Amino acid sequence: MNESDGILEIEQAFADADQEKFLSAMATLDQEALIRPISNAIVEGVEKAERVALGGIVFRGSQKAWGNYITFVVYFMIGEAYRILKPNLEPWLGKKIVIGMAKNEVHNIGKNSVSALAAIAGFEVFDLGIDVPPLTFIEKVKEVDADVLCISSLYSNGFENVAETIEMLAKEGLEKRVMVQVGGSMTKGMADEWGADAYGQCVSLSINCLKQMLDIETFPDERLGEGIIKREIA
Question: Which residue from 22, 74, 164, 198 has the fewest beta carbons nearer than 10 Å?
Fold first, then answer.
């Protein structure tokens, strides 16, 4: 298998949620030399898988859909890919993301997948884990001079902490230079009301929205869903 075929095989492996095909293709490639093409293939493959597995529903309208059996296989594959690629990954996009689950929230499958895929895509990711107090988010954002704060809560017991974190960001005078993307089960209306810049409808759309917000790449609306919330950033 030549390099081009191997890269295409990796993309298709993720699109098909085929772990064995992914590992087989990876074994044929020089990971250090081809880290960026491999990473791009994974990101593209994840989006294809989510489009098929979610029936396209999450790519139009504001419904949230974080997974069924196929997407959970893909999310496991993202984690495996990150572990394999980590020695050769570097934050070539030059953008920093702080990510974590809001205080009182411990359901982190989606967050872990976004965190790992963002690192694979070339972001510098600072993952604070689960049950993160608002102040901890703010302190980390300031410490690393983050470009984006990604905060998530699947259940309502964490919603008020999402809102409090965004409010605290504004009180610290950071809302003009730090973008906020929320995830979990919040609606676009809630995210907009709280002052977020985007919300992640699924893993691949979360990455697309991050790239769009940070002027890294421009996507057609169908590849952003309704994730972008318009707000002026200094």
Answer: 164
pLDDT of residue 189: 81
In SS3 terms, 99-136 reads as: EEEECCCCCCHHHHHHHHHHHHHCCEEEECCCCECHHH
Which secondary structure element, helix H or strand E, spans residue 179, and what is its range?
Answer: strand 179-184
CA atoms of 63 and 95, how far apart (whole Å): 28
pTM of the model: 0.92
Say if residues 169 and 147 touch (Cβ distance below 8 Å). Answer: no
pLDDT in tens, 97-124: 999 999 999 989 889 999 999 999 999 9
Q: For residues 233 and 105, give the distance between their C-alpha atoms in angstroms, rounded to a whole number.
A: 29
